[in-house]
Amino acid sequence: MQKLLTGHVVNFNLRHKRHGHLFQNRYKSVICEDDPYLLELTRYIHLNPLRVEMVGNLSQLGQYRWAGHSAIMRRVKRDWQDAGVILAYFG
Questions:
Q1: Which of 75, 41, 42 is nearest to 58 (CA)?
Q2: How far apart are CA 17 and CA 42, in angstroms?
Q3: CA-CA to 51 of 20 to 30 Å: which in 8, 11, 70, 89?
Q4: Cα–Cα distance, 73 to 78 (Å, whole number)
Q5: What is the pTM of this model?
Q6: C-alpha dihedral, 12 to 15 to 17 to 21, nearest 10°
Q7: CA-CA distance, 78 to 76, in Å (whole number)?
């Protein structure tokens, strides 16, 4: 897999006249240790489609299938999303 991905990156960089890692400087990981930060992180992730105007309002966000807002608000049950964990954590 590494050989395949390396070949893809080399090919991509040659075609686009780039250098370095394909995803360099794009992602940043931060350890989430504090409750207020976890709350803000959860809020950011679930409200992001509204902030970037992929949906117009909270009602539309509740119907947007690619966001977890409707599951957090307990309007929709999704097998792949365990909203109970985050809701239990914050009471």
A1: 75
A2: 38
A3: 89
A4: 12
A5: 0.55
A6: 0
A7: 6
Q: Which residue has the tokens 């992929």?
A: 54
What 3-state class would DSSP assign to 8? helix
Per-residue pLDDT tens listing for the chain (91 residues)? 777 778 888 898 999 988 887 766 555 677 888 888 888 888 888 889 999 999 999 889 888 888 888 888 888 888 888 888 788 877 7
- In which residue are the tokens 């394909």 written? 22
What six digits make up the tokens of 3?
A: 């050989």
* Rounded Cα gap, residues 17 and 67, in angstroms: 35
Q: What is the DSSP letter of 65?
A: T
What angle in degrees, to the nearest 10, is found between the helix axes of 83-90 and 35-51? 130
The Cα-based distances of 22 to 3, 4, 9, 10, 28 in angstroms read: 14, 13, 6, 9, 15
Identity of residue 50: L
